[in-house]
Amino acid sequence: MPPRWKRAVVKLSGEALMGNQTHGLDQGTLDRIAADLAAAAKSGVEIAVVVGGGNFFRGIQGADKGIDRARADSIGMLATVMNGLALEHAIEKAGQPARALSAVPMPYVCQPYSRQAALNHLGKGRVAVLAGGTGNPFFTTDTGAALRGAELSCDVILKATQVDALTTALLSLTDRAHDLPSGLTVPAKPVSNYQPAGKAGQLMTDLNCFSCHVINGRGSDLAPELTWEGSSVQRAWLQAFLKNPGTLRPALIRRMPRFNLSDSDINELTDYILAVYQTPAFDRDSMPTSGYPAAQVEQGKQLFYSKYGCQSCHIVDTKVDKGYVGPTLTQVGSRLTAPWIYHWLKDPQSLRPGTIEPNRNMSDEDAHALTAFLMTQKGSGRQEAKKK
């Protein structure tokens, strides 16, 4: 049977190489991963591996300790080269030729990365181990994987970082990206004629909410889906948002208009949303909005910035965080309910099918700690910056 893809990028985090250890390399884990990569290459797939360095050093951790961020990221790039050299050796020991290439030139250690060199090695059946990230500070190795995938015209990116399952993103700009495997396709949602009831339903019709929002399968995906909004948001935040959306989320590109609703209409809509649009998966009041132990909050902060690298997509600290992919989280503790955050961390796809947030197979302990940390984020971005 011919391989499903001709050329693939595999993203490995540094943590994936340390097994059950707290840091460094676990030889058994390294050999197992190398054997899998060698087997894939022998089946006819051209394999490029982008490797992280979090098992030795993370730039954001160094920045937290006072090292200049650009320099800290450079140390992190060196950590990826250490992993790259170890993986190159392990793959060759498994009987498959491999070459380590670094985006940070160090010719006495390994070959400097170039597109031509990588393509040459792939064409000769060698596994290309790509280290050094993008070669620039402030960019994660996940970004490096996406860049190399596009640069090398790969059919697929296989991401094996904090999760056991491989998360697949098909690159759309290659001539081989037309045959999406049936196991990766998502069926279209059936057409819905849902209509909200009562006075609140009439208000939603008058405000034309379905032109931007999806509710129970009906509407547009221009704005967030509201099917389970009653389980996700806090009452006070929802009331304030309906009164003046621009003051709470001023940075949104697609901004909800101010409808000049009366207090009576706001209360009517709030009561309806919180009562009707609930997920059956959990009780919105099952976890507190405050009062989490300081140690648990600190544990959650460390997980946010180190193990899960959430700042690569989100902003909590406006002075240092650079994440502009996902929502800003500076006031998430005032906006979302704790149960929603917890269950979102555990399995985001179960709450919002198709979301770009990956399922990290997070432990209950980690999810509780991250929830505790996020629930302490109750100020605006400007206020949070002033506090720090």
Q: Tell me the overall shape.
A: elongated
CATH topology type of the largest domain: Carbamate kinase
Per DSSP, the total helix count is 16
Biggest pleated-sheet summary: 7 strands, mixed
**Secondary-structure element pattern, one letter each:** EHEHHEEHEHEEHEEHHHHHHHHHH
Strand content: 5-15%
What does this structure look like?
This protein has 388 residues and is of the alpha/beta class. The protein has helices at residues 27-42, 59-64, 69-93, 115-123, 141-151, 198-206, 229-232, 235-243, 245-248, 263-276, 294-307, 332-335, 338-346, 348-351, 364-375, 381-387; strands at 7-12, 46-51, 98-102, 111-112, 127-131, 156-160, 167-170, 214-215, 218-219. It folds into three domains: 7-179, Carbamate kinase, CATH 3.40.1160.10; 198-276, Cytochrome Bc1 Complex, Chain D, domain 2; 294-387, Cytochrome c-like domain (Cytochrome Bc1 Complex, Chain D, domain 2, Orthogonal Bundle), CATH 1.10.760.10. The protein has 16 helices and nine strands. The longest helix has 25 residues, at 69-93. The radius of gyration is 23 Å and the shape is elongated.
